[in-house]
Amino acid sequence: MLGTLVNVGAILVGSAIGLMLHAKLPKKFITIIFQATGLFTILLGAQMALKMEYLLLGIGSLVLGSIIGEWIGLENYMNRFSDWVKQKVKFKNEKFSDGLITAFLLYCMGSLTILGAIEEGMNSNPDLLLMKSLMDGVSSVALASAMGIGVGFSVIPLLIYQGGITLLAGSAGSFFTDSIINGLSAVGGILLIGLGINILEIKKLRILNMLPALIVIIILTYFFA
Description:
By secondary structure, the chain is an all-alpha fold. The chain has one domain. It is built from eleven helices and no strands. It has helices at residues 2-24, 27-49, 55-72, 74-89, 96-108, 111-123, 127-147, 150-153, 155-172, 178-199, 213-224. The two termini are 30 Å apart.
């Protein structure tokens, strides 16, 4: 998983640079960067959402995934994890969860993530993920400067998600059809739009509890598309 490991390293380096900037930037600059990130997140999400091929499957996955996530209480678990990390590392960052989830969705929901992981898993070619690493490293500087250390911790779910696709593609690459890839990107895009709304503080949406929709869309697309 060379591509994924390089990706993790690039995000950590970018986050470290962003944290140094975060400590020196006046609050008004951090606020405007935060707002710009929210607008970009909504725009990116809208572009990805347009890839939806089967509207009913997308709606169904969001509804079912949200019910599952609400039942499990993913947001509560994330808040507990956030509090535990803050206590262990002894830092104060109100936007820890926002930074982690925003970075994870931005880094993992695009087609480049899925295609790059499949390419490396099937053909041992990390070129797409290396290109993605450069993009993620640069964007993590801006994200960490606005949202803090939570951006760096996004490498944990990224390693599990992106690395898992790479390993799965090595044994079952044909499973990821174009419809599944587009479905994942589209549902991820819708979640990004909701995340952008949260970042801009327009309305507080429980995006974490909607994450199971990413699994549901794979199942629904595989059986019904």
